[in-house]
Every structure is written in C-alpha cells, then in structure tokens.
Amino acid sequence: MKKPVDPNLENFDNDEFLNSLDNDTTDDINFNVEEASPTDNIDDYHAYQGHRNQAEIQNSSDNEMTFTEKEHHHHSSSSHHHSSSHSHSSHHKKKKLPVSAKIAIVILVLILFLVIVVVGTVLFLEYKGKSDLTNVTTQTDYEEKITYNGHDYVYNDDIVSIAFIGVDKRDLGLENNTVGTAGQADANIVLTVDTSTGKARALAIPRDTMVEVDLYSENNIFLRNEKMQLCLSYAYGNGTDTSAQNVTTSISRILYNVPINKYFALDLNGIAPINDAVGGVTVESLYDFKNLGIKKGDSVHLVGDLTEAYVRTRDMDNIEASLNRTSRQVQYIKAFASQLAPAVMNDFSIVSKLYNTATNYSTTNISLTEATYLASFLISRNITDFDTITLQGEMKPSNKTEHADFVYAEFYPDKDKLMQTVLDTFYTQIN
Q1: Which long-range contacts (CB under 8 A, 24 or more apart) does 139-144 make?
Q2: Using DSSP, how many helices (H) and how many strands (E) does the chain show?
Q3: Of the four listed, 20, 195, 370, 381, which is most buried by Cβ atoms within 10 Å?
C-alpha cells in the first residue's frame, strides 16, 4: 500500500492527486493558504493540508525547488462552485553557464574586437596614407585650371606624385660640410598614380634638362636662382633631405609647377642591396657593354654590382649618351616594379623589409605608412605595369669649358609635347 500524504487520509492516493493536476503545469507548485478555506469543504481542506505538508517536506529536502501558482477548481456536494486564482512572484535560481561556454564567449568577443581593430586600423591607414600622399602643398604655384588648344583641364587631386632620385655618390652627405660636394642627381623619374582610376606612369626627366635652380650658402641661406642642369640641384643642399627637396622643386618647375610632395633619393651603395632583395631583375639590354661581354638585345639577369653598371654606364664623349642611360633607368624601374609586385602578393612583409633596407642608403619623406598604403593600393588594383614616358626635346652642347675632355650637354624639352604630357598625367580634361 502506498503511504498516504496525511495520516488522517488513509485512503488518499498521492499518485491520483498528482494526476488530477493539469499536465502542462510545472512540477514546482506554490500554494497559498487563502486558496481554499476550511469552512468551504472539509474534504478539500484535508486535501489541501496533505499537499501542503508534502510541499513542505519537498521544500526542506531540496532548497533549489520552488513553487509557482496553480489555479485549482473545487466542487462541493451541494453543487456550490468556488474558484480563486492568485498570482505570486517566485524567485528562480539562475543556472550557471558551463566554464567551457564562458570561455567560448570570451574568445568570440576577443576575436570580434580584434577584427574591429584590424579593419579600423586598415581603413585609417588607407585614409591617412592617401591623404598624406595626395595633399597639395604650397611649395609650387601650379595652375588649378588650364586652357590649352581649345580644351579646359583641371588639376587631378587624386594624383600621387613621387620623385625618385639616383645620386652619383657612394654615401649621402657633404664632404667637410662644404656646399657643392653632395653629388649630382643622375636619375630623375617621377612616379604618378591616379588613386581614382589606378593608372600609373613613370615620367623620366633627363638629368641635363635646363631649369632654374635654387642656390644656397653653406649656412642654408637662399642666395639666388640660376639656370643650369637639373642634376646640379642636388649639390645645393645638405646632401640628404634639403638636397632631395631642391631637386624635387626643380623637377616641379620643369613640369609647369605641378605639386610633387614626396621624394626618394638613393645613393650608389643602395642599388645592389635593394635589387637583390627581390631576387634580382631581368632586362633586355639596351646598350653594348663591351667590357662585360653584353650586347644590345641580350637578356641579362641583374644582380649585385652588375645592376649599378647597367643603370649608370654612359659614354662621356657622346652628347646623346645620357638619354640612352635614362632609357635604361626607366626600363630597370619598370622591371623592378614587375618583379616586386608578385613578391609582395606572396609576402606583404616585404614592403616593410624593403623600406627598412632602403633607409640605410637613402633619404626620403615617405613614411612606412604611406609606402604600405601605396603597395596595398597597387596590389588591390592588380597594377604590375605602368606607362613610361621620357621627355622629348633637343640635346645641345654646352658652352662650358671647365673640362675639355668632357662633352657638356644641355637638354631643352619640346614645350608643346611637355605641356601635353603634363596635362595627360596630372590633369583631367573637362571639355
């Protein structure tokens, strides 16, 4: 026989009582003494008392069990119907998450935070890199709008312009702090990138191009302007940043004062290390190097000192020699860029490694942030090639007679072709 819930109700079956309850009701039931009054029906009262005792026993044995309200319907023998319902708030003990779940949530939050930080940093660097590279300075008095041959042009604010300068000196700087000993700018190439279209171009300017050059004293005091070869601009400065800036200013004047904000000047000792950092460069020779056994048209893989020989050698007794060398320099830079692009795609850290290597042999106002932005932009646009243009004009012998064994040349650009090149490179035609 099953044990009754109350000794006074010997025939009361506990299972029958529980089965009479609504099956959708939760196991935890909270009764209020006011739900059934003893005066209403003695049988109901005994049933109530029995179940309350059972609830108290259950509550004392398990502190985690609580009771919720339940509506009960009681019927008397006199067909009197009495019902009452009360709502009571109960306190449920919250179940704790497993430790593994907590760890997983923390990891997910950290991953989300890192993603937000990385994406935000990339977007910031992209914005700052582009802003710094395209920001027009007040160094030049350029024309924002030009009318030429019946067409109107406006300056393209999305253009990034960088002057690459090759200095004919082993180590950058002055000798005995003397002005004029910084060396000369033998290679002068302006790299332009249109950040709106992805169009890239390398514009080579012959070292002998005649231009107004700023002359400075040993104390860096401006003296005057004097018309001379572009290459001599580098001599009037401290051999590093002010010399590079002076060349950049002269280049801007040649190109009708277009803004060129950034420069990168490299000495002779840096050519081989930077070249070899990308595994060397292969070119089709544009010149006969008799002492090296290389003929024009030969395929040559440039590594080590051979790289310097290829981009520097020229005939001192030929007035056109410097133009051939300029062509080789443009060819080399283009080949270097095409070699660098896939290397960076495979390992983007090459950008910072190459930048750090270059700083040992150069002077530049290009930050690592800007270099990283430019590299990521070129890769995102899949730019591995670019147009190459060398200024067209006339090479004339100079009247200089300081060294009778050498031929001094002066290059004068064709004004119409120069203007069209500038408009095509730095401006946008609007009608």
Answers
A1: 139/249, 139/252, 139/259, 139/261, 140/249, 140/252, 140/253, 140/257, 140/258, 140/259, 140/260, 141/257, 142/252, 142/256, 142/257, 142/258, 142/259, 143/256, 143/257
A2: 10, 17
A3: 370
Tokens for 92? Answer: 């449920």
Q: List pLDDT tens digits, range 69-88.
A: 444 444 444 444 444 444 44
Q: Where are the alpha helices (DSSP H) in 62-162?
A: 99-134
User: At 179, is the secondary structure helix, strand, or coil?
Assistant: coil
Quote the pTM value: 0.70
Query: Between 301 and 43, where is the model more confident?
Result: 301
Residue type, 220: N
Q: Round to the nearest angstrom and report the end-to-end CA distance of the chain.
A: 107
| Helix-helix angle 99-134:368-380, to 10 degrees | 100
**CA dist., res. 108 & res. 401, Å (int):** 76
